Structure formats: C-alpha cells, structure tokens
Amino acid sequence: MLLSSSQVLFFSSLSLGTLLSISSSSWFGAWIGLELNLMSFIPLISSKNNQYSSEAALKYFLIQALGSSVIIMSASFVLSSNELAIMLMTVALLLKSGAAPFHFWFPSVMEGLQWPQVIILMTIQKIAPLSLLSYTLYSSNLPIIPAAIISSALVGAIGGINQTFLRKIMAYSSINHMAWMMSAILISETNWLLYFSFYCFISTSIVMLFNFQEAFHISHIMNYSSHSPQMKMIMFSSLLSMGGLPPFTGFIPKWFIIQEMISSHMFVILMVLLMSALLTLFYYLRIAMMAFTISSPSTKWGMKMMSTSVLTPSLLYINLFGLLAPNLFMVIL
Where is the NADH:quinone oxidoreductase/Mrp antiporter transmembrane domain (predicted)? Predict the structure, then answer.
C-alpha cells in the first residue's frame, strides 16, 4: 500500500517532533516536540475506511492534551518545589506513554486504529515520553516509578487474559512491556535502548502478520492459518518470541534485564515482572496454539496469498535470531 503525499508529510513531521523532543536542551523545546508529534499523529489516525477512527482520534487528542497541560503546570512549581515539579512531569509522561495506572485510554484508542497506525502508536509514539522519563529519573529517585512498574506489569498481564480482540491484546501486551522498559530505565540507558529496539522489531513483525491476514479477532487467525502452513509457523514463533520464551529473540532483552536487576538487588520488582511474564505468555500461547493446531472449516473470501520470497524468511529470522545466533549475545554479556 503506497502512502499518499499528505501521509508522508505528516509522518515526516511526526518523526521530526520525536527527534526534537529527545534532542532538545530544554523542557520547553521538548514540549514543542511533543505537541508537534501529537498534531501530526491525529491526521494519520483519521481514515475513511474505519468508522471508529474519529472516536480514537478524539480520545487520543484529549489525553495527550491533558498530559501536555500537566507538563506546563509542573513548570510553575519548579521555583517553589522542585520535587513536586518532577513528580508532576513524571505523571504526565506516564500518561502520554500509556503506562499503568494511567493506561485507561490506551486499549480503547488501539481498538479504533488500523494496523499501520497501531505500529506507530506502539513504537514511535513511545520514544519521546520514555526518553524524557529517563531524564527525570536520573535527576531524582521517585517512589512513583516502582509503583508504575508493578501496576503496569499486573495490568498488562491480567487485562489481556480474557481478551479476544487482537488489538486489545497487543495494547495490554504493550502495557506489560512498558514495565520492563521502565525497569531498564532505572538500571541504565543502554539497557532501555536495547530492550526497546527488540520490542519494536518483534511487535512490528507481529502487527505486520495481523495486517497481512486482515485479522482483528482470534477467529480470523484460525481462518487464515488453516490454509497456510508457513503462516502457522511464523505466527507460532512470533507470538512466543513476543512472550519472551527462550530461546526466541524476545527472551534476549529480558535476559539482560533479569541479570541487571539481580545485580542491582531489585528482587521484589523482578518477581512481579517474572510472574506477569508467565501470564502474558499464557495468552500468547493461547493464540499461537489455536493458530498452529486448530483449522477452521470456514473460508475467508478474498484471501491474499502469501509471498514467500521476502516476508517469510525475514519474519522468521527476526523472531528466531536469538536461536540462530546465541554466541553473539554471550560475548556481549
């Protein structure tokens, strides 16, 4: 699908806003970058083919505007109480990134988006808030961050168990991965960048599969995978990699974070993260086993045939990279 000239323009300004936020030398410049990012993403959400896009765009705008207003309000407390200003800034950034306990908008907005916009919301839109959040964490040690990590891990794990819509499952999965990313931020910036890079690659590969199948419900995966053994294997390995099951690629960043958290004596948070990882792996495995073993007798009309020339090897390599090249990460570790 080719992008129109307006979509290319808004995507370019969205990327520019993200770069401005993470490279700015002042909070005012970072705020300008966040606003540019917000105003560029709203037109990308709007779609004539999706009747829920207007609702999703309105929800996203209101929540992001609320976060921006809290950032401006925190600037007024810098002279009187620096700790209060940093705490308000942290709350605003958690709200913008969709982390618990400020996650209430994230699944509902994701449900009204198409898959290409879901990729942007899960990856690019988290770069600026998480980068700014790392700046606030390095300047002070607030108790709200461990509380946000624990709540994000539990909400992301428990919230996705009974879901059957794929976009909501990916939303709660993103909230759970936010807990791991915030834990990585507490350790070092390198660990956060490593985990976020792996998260972007793996989640993008899964969303590309869903978009290729035009799947929005678990039953859609069964309808398609029954006609394609190659798609069964790709879906199975991709979902298990997203869940962090060894020896798939998704386990590599979690392995690093686990070892660093043990070295930093963060045992309570690590225990919650590991328990939540088991719950997330449960609903990933539920989708993967249904796609791998159950064949639906119904036929999906207008089904696309999968091109095995590029898509199959690339997606398999992304999710099996940890299995194919484990020695590289042993040397790095």
Answer: 24-280
Q: Does 305 score more than 60 pLDDT?
A: no
Q: Cα-flanking dihedrals φ and ψ of residue 110, to 5°?
A: -60, -35
* Separation between Cα atoms, residue 180 and residue 197, nearest integer Å: 13
User: Is there a contact between 98 and 67 (Cβ–Cβ < 8 Å)?
Assistant: no
Nearest to 144 by CA among 94, 98, 74: 94
**Maximum alpha-carbon separation in the chain:** 67
The torsion angles phi and psi of 86, rounded to 5 degrees, stand at -70, -35
- Are 125 and 110 in contact by the 8 Å Cβ rule? The answer is no
The per-residue pLDDT for 227 is 55
Contact 119, 204 (CB under 8 A): yes
DSSP class of 113: S
Q: Read off the pLDDT band of 22 (50, 70, 90).
A: very high
Distance (Å, rounded) from C-alpha 178 to C-alpha 3? 30
Provide the residue type at 127 as one letter: I
Q: What is the pLDDT of residues 184-232, one digit of tens each?
A: 999 888 899 999 999 999 999 899 888 888 888 888 776 655 556 777 7
Question: What would the DSSP string read from start to end of 114-158?
Answer: -HHHHHHHHTHHHHHHHHHHHHHHHH---THHHHHHHHHHHHHHH
Neighbours of 297 (CB within 10 A): 7
Residue 306 has pLDDT above 80, yes or no: no
